[in-house]
Amino acid sequence: MRLSLLMLLLIGANVAVAQTKPLTAAPANPATKVASAAPGGQAATLYTGDVTPLLATAGGKSVGDISPGTPVNVMGTSGKFSQVTVQGWSTQKGPSQVYSAVGQRINMVSLSDAKTASRTVGKTTTDDYKAVWENVTVTGWVTSTSLMNDQKTIWSHASALYSKSCSACHAAHQPTDHTANEWIGVLKGMTPRTSLTKDQVALILKYLQTSAKK
């Protein structure tokens, strides 16, 4: 009787632990891990580990994608979702694409429709080619498990993937061999000869552009 009672108590304890332990899906990108928010309730600056769907509401429809390694400010959470903002630059003629800087085609966010997304416009400036750029802030929701604390871990994974996939035919180009804008065309010409997925190409491109010749 004592043994049976002990077994029942142990079983009950295991069930209680199992019920309180959070469940998380294994990420496709080994660099991806759950990130923690900043202390004191302040907005934390975290990073997207992969191509990450941007949602209109927590668990709602997608309004675009955030590219890998993009810094986001976490404004709050709801269940397994985090509300984030992304700040960058768009041209007036291409408001659906948000880039990291004026004249630099380093993609941060691709919106399905800029008119339906939560997008606010700040100051404007004109580049050397007379194109007008707008400083924009995009707000939306992402799954919390898609965010990371350390951007260096993302780039380390991207670097290893690039070296493995793009050195089979020839020595891989160094990131500083090209400018950020040049890398778009260079990588586009290389990837058809690899087995890289679309999301992997996006990760590698972002890494190369971030580390590119200035």
Automatic annotation (TrEMBL):
Statement: the UniProt record of this protein carries the keyword Signal: yes
Leader sequence segment: 1-18
Molecular function GO terms recorded: electron transfer activity; heme binding
Domain of life: Bacteria
InterPro entries, alphabetized: Cyt_c-like_dom_sf
Keywords carried by this UniProt record: Signal
Protein name according to UniProt: Cytochrome C
Source species: Deinococcus psychrotolerans
